[in-house]
Amino acid sequence: MNSPLSPTGTAQLLEQLSLFVPDEFINERLRPKRRLGRRSLYSPAQLYRVHLLALLTSAHSFNLLVALLKENRSWRRFARLSHRDRVPDAKMLHQFRAAAGVAGLRRINEHLLAGLLDSCLGERKTVAIIDSTDLPAATNAYKKS
User: Cα–Cα distances in Å, from 119 out to 4, 52, 114, 116, 123?
Assistant: First the structure.
């Protein structure tokens, strides 16, 4: 089967998918309210892109992702991070996900799905996309025995 997409985890795949991430939409919907003090170092779109890296690369935990992000230029380019040493930490990623919530992430998925459906051929009748953003994790791998 020939796929128009590059293999998972490659820089070519990240370049292909980068065009489809709706940065403006994400920034409008998930912009935090203005507060006193320092402004956020990263935009919601940058943090969302770092989240996508956990799905699109071999780093499947935020701690590992943050460690590898400093070494991998193509990942930083995909996430639109300009400095090698200034990358979001795992705490920032967890806070972003908590602030966005299930509803915020679903809005992004719906926006992406609308573009996907518009580009589908008219002869196709169904599209199935798995959405497990609100399912609890069921694992005993990290429990003490």
Answer: 15, 22, 9, 5, 12
